[in-house]
Write a structure and sequence with these properties.
Elements (H helix, E strand, L loop, with lengths): L1 H14 L4 H14 L2 H14 L16
């Protein structure tokens, strides 16, 4: 079940990546739903995903270091 939530989160983030505000909101929701190790994995995925989307990089503030 947990892996399904992580995959679902990635799908949602990909679909809303056209709007920075919506992307930030969904990312914030994801950090409250996912487990700490999934958030670490999501951070790695986001670094790769956002490499060509500079307008969305501001949303990384929702990922705790």
């Amino acid at each position: 079940m947990a892996r399904a939530m992580f995959d679902y989160t990635k799908t949602v983030l990909q679909k809303v990546s056209f709007d920075a505000m919506l992307f930030c909101r969904e990312l914030e929701k994801a950090t409250s739903r996912l487990r700490p190790y999934e958030i670490d994995e999501l951070k790695l995925w986001l670094i790769s995903f956002l490499s060509d989307k500079p307008e969305l990089r501001q949303c990384m503030i929702y990922i705790k270091d």
